[in-house]
Amino acid sequence: MRSITDISDPRLVKALAHPLRIRILSSLEERVASPSRLAAELDAPLGTVSYHVRILAGLGLLQLVDRKQRRGAIEHYYRARGPARISESAWEEVPTVVKEALVEATLGEIYRYVDDAAAGGGFSRGDAHLVRQPLTLDARGWKELAAAVQNLWEHAKRIEADSASRLHAGQRRRAYEAGLVLMYFERPTAPREPDGAPSERGSREGVARRGRTEHRRVKT
After folding, report:
1. Lowest-pLDDT range of 60-69, 169-178, 182-191, 208-217
2. How many domains does the chain have?
3. Would you state the pLDDT for residue 190?
4. Is the dihedral of CA 26, 21, 129, 165 positive or negative?
5. Do 115 and 154 belong to one domain?
6. Can you give the residue range of the structural domain that contains 176?
């Protein structure tokens, strides 16, 4: 089975709307591990982790890569088939409650991912970035920026592939374990008065925020 990079079936999206499954997939994106190792790392019962691993493997998101004899039993080792990306059409068909569960689980994993990096000095480089940019767009601008975000993600994967080729060629290069988180979303609107007009405070703050870019290079 080929690597899954584009999920187009809404039923598959629903199956992912579980925080433990998101954490399992995230843990296996860059390495191989068994359910028992995952259970210890994720602080979850082995039976529960094994169940969710079987579900993910059955959906084609995990691949069984090895079996080893351990203490009289066979231990199975899995890895993710590839980074899973949900298609626009599938996302639109998923019920709101499923979307909320999947977003919450994914944000939780992102928080752990970034928090661990920050605690370990991951933002100490001069060219590390932490950016937040409020924007006001029309329909055309929304689509243009959505396409730009998608292009950046695809460009990042091409850069990674080129880096892998150079590293594999035996050139004397250091491998940097980089992290990239992309988010593009509709933010809450300014608070409104009972008559429906934006509040004076919200309007002033909105103009002030839109007038600048919050672009920080974080030093530790």
Report:
1. 208-217
2. 2
3. 62
4. positive
5. no
6. 123-220
The answer on 130 and 24 residing in a single domain is no
Name the pTM for this structure.
0.59
CATH number of the domain that residue 44 is part of: 1.10.10.10
Counting residues of the chain whose pLDDT is more than 70, the rounded percentage is 78
- Return the amino acid letter for 115: D
CA pair distance 114, 218, nearest whole angstrom: 13
User: Pairing relation of β-strands 130-132 and 73-80?
Assistant: unpaired
pLDDT confidence of 21, banded at 50, 70, 90? confident
Q: Under a CB-based contact definition with an 8 Å cutoff, are residues 61 and 25 in contact?
A: yes
Q: Pick from 119, 134, 151: which residue ends a domain?
A: 119
**Is residue 28 a contact partner of residue 80, using CB atoms and an 8 Å limit?**
yes
Query: In the chain, how many H helices and how many E strands?
Result: 8, 4
Which position has the token pair 């396409």? 147
Residue 140 and residue 219 in one domain:
yes
Same domain, yes or no: 38 and 54? yes
Q: Please name which of 185, 175, 181, 84 lies closest in space to residue 133, comparing C-alpha atoms.
A: 185
Query: Does one domain contain both 102 and 130?
Result: no
Average pLDDT of the residues of the chain: 79
Could you give the CA distance from residue 97 to residue 152 in angstroms, rounded to a whole number? 29
Helix (H, G, I), strand (E, B) or coil at 31: coil
